[in-house]
Amino acid sequence: MVNLQSPCKECSRKCCEKFIVPLTIFDLFRIKKATGKDIEQFSTLIEYNKTDEKNFFPIFFMDQKRNLKQMLLVLKRFNNSCIFFDQQICLIWPAHPLVCKVYPFFEMDKNGELKYVKNFICPRKWTEKEIDNYKIKEALAVFKFEIEEHNKIIRKWNAEYREKSEKDFFEYLKKSVRT
Ligand code: SF4
Ligand code: SF4
């Protein structure tokens, strides 16, 4: 999305500043591999109702001392923007999360045409040629698959481990990828 060669180069990078970025477990480990950082250094949990996310990403329950919270796994933020956003550039491109790769599209209609998200702030219209060039449809297919797999891991946490701590949660994610 923030590749300087991309159609985003004329944009003020509104999406990287505005949105809290939800992650799948696959994003986590791609970013870990690309940066060499441990996953807790760049990701965190945030209460679901404090995000813009309403449709796509499954929720983790944290139920410590019967104080149930609904959480999303997200990229950390720094200075009111994504932690990897620096001087108008994405520091982890092309290992940026799939949600960034497909933005501002999340769905295809029944004719296979991409649909813009309803709350999009993207200031430009994307042409079919750009959508092809940046392989957005392919990224969307991977995104859908990975969300499903991510969902399975979340369901297991919610069913078996929700009373454990946030530290346990990150250990659980690491273990889920190893197995
Ligand atoms: S990961 Fe990169 S593309 Fe995604 S919000 Fe952060 S800076 Fe932007
Ligand atoms: S708001 Fe649109 S044009 Fe701007 S960086 Fe994001 S996707 Fe690219």
Q: How many β-strand stretches?
A: 9
List low-confidence stretches: 1-5
Largest sheet: 3 strands, antiparallel
Structural domains: how many: 1
Distance between the termini: 31 Å
SSE pattern: HHHEEEEEEEHEEHHH
Helix content: 25-40%
Tell me the β content.
15-25%
The DSSP helix count reads 7
What integer value in Å does the Rg equal?
Answer: 17 Å
Please characterize this protein's 3D structure.
The chain has 179 residues and is of the alpha+beta class. It has one domain. Helix content is 39%, strand content 19%. Strands 1-3-2 form a three-stranded antiparallel β-sheet. Strand 6 and strand 7 form a beta hairpin. It is globular and about 50 Å long. The site of one iron/sulfur cluster has 12 residues, from loops.
List the helices and strands and how they pair.
Layout: H1 14-18, H2 25-35, H3 39-42, E1 43-47, E2 60-64, E3 67-75, E4 77-78, E5 81-82, E6 85-86, E7 89-90, H4 98-102, E8 105-108, E9 114-116, H5 128-133, H6 136-160, H7 166-178
Antiparallel strand pairs: 1-3, 2-3, 4-5, 6-7, 8-9
One iron/sulfur cluster (SF4) binds at residues 1-2, 8, 11, 13-15, 103-104, 122, 124.
Keywords:
single chain, 179 residues, alpha+beta, three-stranded antiparallel beta sheet, two-stranded antiparallel sheet, 7 helices, 9 strands, disordered N terminus, binds iron/sulfur cluster
Summarize the structure.
39% of the residues lie in helices and 19% in strands.
